[in-house]
Amino acid sequence: MIRLKLLLFTVFIGIIIPCGMSSERSMFIDTVEAFNFLSKHHHELHIMIGEDEGDFKKAYNSFYKYISATSNDRLLPIKNGFFRIKDFKTASKDVKDFDALVDYYQSGLSLEIEGILKGYGYSNIIEMDKVVDIYDKIKK
Q1: pLDDT digit string (tens) for 46-59?
Q2: φ and ψ of 68, to 5 deg
């Protein structure tokens, strides 16, 4: 009976738990994708805060479309911050606060990406469009 319990426990620990856990690589990829998402859509924020020319409503709707469609958990604070915007005017306090969130969050994602690569001994200049390939090469 004890052996059966030990066997069941071992199966649970060895098979069941790891199936639900993310790997370091998948977490790394989610981080890179979140960083790239913010880089790609940062222009809309600059329109919304009045730094770049453009239509506030179009920029807001564009960002809304993309942030609503993402399922990347690394973007949850960004998604939540976006939906806290209640004052829909160019350069409103809500919009400026959201832009600050995005700026600092994106910087943090960059540091995480660089930190992981440095943790594997990579000290060259990091090109964000190649970081997953770099990760895969140094991880081997």
Answers
A1: 999 999 999 999 99
A2: -70, -30
In a domain, 6, yes or no: no
Answer whether 110's CB lies under 8 Å from 42's CB: no
> In this predicted model, what pLDDT tens digit does every residue of 15-32 receive, in sequence order?
555 555 579 999 999 999
Question: CA-to-CA distance for 126 and 131, rounded, in angstroms?
Answer: 7
Query: Per the structure block, which two tokens stand in for 134?
Result: 């770099």
Integer distance in angstroms from the first to the last C-alpha of the chain? 42
Count of other CB atoms within 10 angstroms of residue 82: 20
Domain that residue 52 falls in: 24-139
Residues composing the chain: 140
Asked whether residue 134 is domain-assigned, the answer is yes
For 90, the token pair is: 């160019």
Residue 17: inside a domain, yes or no? no
Using the predicted structure, report yes or no on whether residue 88 has a pLDDT greater than 70.
yes
Q: Does residue 140 register a pLDDT over 90?
A: no
In terms of C-beta distances under 8 Å and separation of at least 24 residues, what long-range contacts does 83-86 make, across chains too? 85/60
Distance, in Å, from the CA atom of 12 to the CA atom of 9, rounded to the nearest integer, reads 5
